[in-house]
Amino acid sequence: MAIRVQAQAFDPGVEVNALHAANLGIGAVVSFVGYVRDFNDGREVAGMFLEHYPGMTEKALGKIVAQAHERWPLLGLEVLHRVGALEPGEPIVFVGVTSAHRQAAFDACNFVMDYLKTRAPFWKKENTAEGPRWVEGRASDQAAVERWK
């Protein structure tokens, strides 16, 4: 299990390969990579700034990861989330899950992303032509997390 919150860029391919190399008994690696888009809700986005509360954020991510491990037979799980200034096209988040079989890895990856979107203490501010604006949570994210209860 690895949780990283960092300002530095990362290479999703390197992250996936490292997960697999850690255990040759892995039968499945499922990953999700979220990127900064150049638009949101019909507005152009020139960049984004992500804030977090050090210590509290990692603790919240740890709880999400622990819940995934309790629900599925996982061999590994990594969550990497960027903070600070980001440009369109840059990766924001990486979730990588390994297991002996694919279904557990798919389910756990979806679970982690759904909970990360609704429970992790990150605050996003987009830079738009109209000026900076805070990104609000979406009802669809909240609805997605309800399926796991």
TrEMBL record:
Q: In which pathway does it act?
A: Cofactor biosynthesis; molybdopterin biosynthesis
According to UniProt, the reaction catalysed is: 2 [molybdopterin-synthase sulfur-carrier protein]-C-terminal-Gly-aminoethanethioate + cyclic pyranopterin phosphate + H2O = molybdopterin + 2 [molybdopterin-synthase sulfur-carrier protein]-C-terminal Gly-Gly + 2 H(+)
Subunit structure and binding partners: Heterotetramer of 2 MoaD subunits and 2 MoaE subunits. Also stable as homodimer. The enzyme changes between these two forms during catalysis.
One Pfam family named in its UniProt record: MoaE
> Which EC number(s) does the record attach to this protein?
2.8.1.12
Q: Can you say what this protein is called?
A: Molybdopterin synthase catalytic subunit
Main enzyme class: transferase
